[in-house]
Structure formats: structure tokens, C-alpha cells
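Session log. Operator J.P. requested a structure for one protein chain; no other inputs attached. Running the standard single-chain path with C-alpha cell output.
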Amino acid sequence: MEDAIISNEELLQELSDAIVSCKKDAVLAAVEKAKGVIEPSEIIEKGLAAGMNEVGTLFERGKLFLPHVMMAADAMTSGVESLKDLMPEGAESKMGVIVNGTVEGDVHDIGKSIVSTMLQSAGFEVHDIGRDVPVKNFIDKAKEVSANMVGLSALMTTTLQGQKDVIELLKEEGMRDGVKVMIGGAPATQAWADKIGADCYAENASEAVAKAKELLL
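Structure written below.
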């Protein structure tokens, strides 16, 4: 009987907790329970993504470590996959195509990976090209997939310049008008975004999703 009166809030909390537990089985079980009760987009945004945000916070505080974060991201991807059949047909393609990566010289991966997962969960088509990515690779990939946006992560002050370099090359290639640029990473700021001509700066994964929707929808 108790299951019948479980509230949406409790279901969403269960989804979030399952992500924080980093256990795929727990995540899939929570998703199954929420299916048919809560909209798929809400399961992703207010349940799974909320949990992933919490994982990111715990990682930053040293309470969780890289393997945990990767397991949580993997569990979230599986949870999202299991909802694919319930998503409106063609919803993804309308949202926009994003190339996301960490700039050359920077091997930090985790924040960028969380952002990619969250953007994907929100319905964007995301091409995560990894870390330590040469400037030209961002441009080549953007051309290849007809990207509407490029996400540039930099976690060190010494690699921030790479964000500027990508924007400069987009201009040289005549692509800048058709491609929005979002930057992020610990040393990045709104002032830096303004200075290098980026379209937006996102402090965390949730903000990245909100800004991408703002710019692309």
C-alpha cells in the first residue's frame, strides 16, 4: 500500500539518492518506479540530474573520488537510455548540437563530463571530444556535426587562453556567427567570457543546461 501513496518528491529524491550511491542497479530500479508517474523530462532533470549535481559537489569537497563520479555518470546515462522510448519523437534533434571538450594542455575531465551528461539528458545532441583537445579539433568537429554550440572547459589559468584561441579560429573560419560559445571551468569568469567574446559563461552543469537552452531554443 505504501508504494501507492509515495509522493513525486519522494520518487525524485530516490532517483537523486540512487545517482549519489553510484549504483547502476539502484538507478535503473528508481527510474522504473518513477516511469508512468513522473514525466521523463522531469525524471531526468529533477531526479537524475539533481543527483549528478550533488555528486559534482561531493567530488569538489573531496567526499567522492573520480571512480565514483564516473560510475555515477555511467549510471545516469543508463537511466536516461531506459527512458528513451518514452521521450517525444524527434525531441533531441530540435534542441541543438553541441561539441564539448577541455582545451589543449588541460587534462581535467570530470566537470566537463558532468556537463556533457547533463546536456545530453536535457535533450541536446552532445559530442564530447575529451580533454587536452587541440584548437583545430574543436573546429573540425563543429564542422563535421554542424554544431550550434561549442563548450570550452579550462581548469587552469594557464589554459584559459585556449578558450580564446578557439573563438579566434571560429572567426577565421567564418563560423562564429553560426556557432555559440559557452565557457566554463574554475578560473573562468563572466568577465573573461566578455573579454574573449564568448556567448556565455556557466559556473556549473545546471547553469550550462539553462544557458544552452537560452541560447539555442
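Operator note: The longest helix spans residues 40-60.
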